[in-house]
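@channel sequence for tomorrow's demo:
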Amino acid sequence: MWLVNTAKGTQVSVHYWSSGNREVDFVLVKGAKAVAVEVKSSRRRGRLSGMEAFSNEFKVHKKLLVGADGIPIEEFMTTDLLSWF
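structure tokens (generated this afternoon):
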């Protein structure tokens, strides 16, 4: 809910994507640019098959891994949403 509230009043829309058993937690869209966001709560290494499938199907401006071995959640939540574009 935080991400949706943060996007209010900006040119960014927040979406979810899935195809079969693959998913992307959040897709941020601003104009023609899409940023795929995957949130991981554990350090367990795993494939990001949803992110890969989404990137193969759509033009992705940026892919973000948040939490675990990616961007710390605190940093993601305190960074201006528009800076990811």
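heads up for whoever presents: The chain has a mean pLDDT of 92.
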